[in-house]
Amino acid sequence: MCKTQVRVWHKRFLRGEENIHDAPRSGHPRCSRTPDNIELIQRIIQEDGHLSLTDMCDCTGLSRFTVMTILKKDLKMKKTAKFIPHLLTQAQKDIWKRVCQENINRLCQSTNLEEWIHSVITGDETWLSTCEPDLKRNNCVWTKQGEGQPKTPRPSRFGHKTMLTLFCDAKGPILIEFMEPGTTIDTPAYIKTLQNLKECVRRKWPELWAGRKFVLHHDNASPHTAADTITALTKWNIQTLSHLPYSPDCTPCDFSFFPKLKEKLRGHRFQNIKQLQKEAQKILLSMDKSVFLDSMHDLVLRWQKCMKVNGDYFEGDNVQIDPLFEMVSGEDSDSDTDSEEED
């Protein structure tokens, strides 16, 4: 503090002033963030929510800083977007809500909720590529000012592919299969996969197979809902859970297992299909057991969320519900896993 300020404060203390803080001042009056301008911005957004900041500035004559301040601080808004697999009709939303209610009622009829969760076997298919493109942000590096940007070649998205079929329960993977190169899943191939799954359950869990105490959960793909598939499941007395159409939100493989698998494969280049299959199988078998248990619990929570939003998509939305039971993480459980890989 300079001598001048010391003299000023000395005189103030002599006058009996003890407050060292600045006195409140009116400041410059608001001329931009007025109630009228806030109402104008809100009305413009209600008419067209796709407008950019530049468009809003042109419509109102306000600066970009003022418009951004009104949006964030006064209206508490931000610009977001979410892509969904399918634009649902009201009839489809009603079906979603009804199916979720049926599954929850089926769960609540069980005397032991945890036992029922462990009896559900879920499965799905996905394509894996020998060259899974990496995210751009994963290749970013810190550079000094004036240095050139490091150049990373863009990986090809057209590498060789293989189709993975995964069946698992709350303990971990049960069946891991890969389709022959050049083939895809169809009704006969899926029935053969179900036969392999049936043998795995019969061999590893004879008590479940004897009493048919497990429930199969798969999506509504054509091979899964074909007449021959339904006939085979009926012949084997295998019960199935109803599934929602166009709903990756409610498929554990889609919202948990496959994204975690592909995240591990991202950025790696495999010389052939065999290496890719071996690495994918290794990743699935090394996943923490709590991932599978929490995903099966999350499936029930997602049924509740779907009902809460009246059968619409909810991924990324803040939907508050009362869970039927608490999520269990880190529970020790042994997993019996079988993988069949064709040469």
Characteristics of this structure?
alpha/beta, 45% helix, Nucleotidyltransferase, domain 5, disordered C terminus, 343 residues, 6 strands, 2 domains, six-stranded mixed beta sheet
Q: How do the helices and strands line up, and which of them pair or pack?
A:
Elements: H1 3-14, H2 35-47, H3 53-60, H4 64-74, H5 90-108, H6 113-118, E1 120-129, E2 161-168, E3 173-178, H7 187-204, H8 206-211, E4 215-217, H9 222-225, H10 227-235, E5 239-240, H11 252-265, H12 273-286, H13 289-308, E6 338-341
Parallel strand pairs: 1-4, 3-6, 4-5
Antiparallel strand pairs: 1-2, 2-3
Explained architecture:
By secondary structure, the protein is α/β, with parallel strands linked by helices. Strand 2 and strand 3 form a beta hairpin. The protein has helices at 3-14, 35-47, 53-60, 64-74, 90-108, 113-118, 187-204, 206-211, 222-225, 227-235, 252-265, 273-286, 289-308; strands spanning 120-129, 161-168, 173-178, 215-217, 239-240, 338-341. The longest helix is centred in the last third of the chain and has 20 residues, at 289-308. The chain is elongated and about 95 Å long. The protein has two domains: 30-79; 90-135 and 157-341, Ribonuclease H-like superfamily/Ribonuclease H (Nucleotidyltransferase, domain 5, 2-Layer Sandwich).
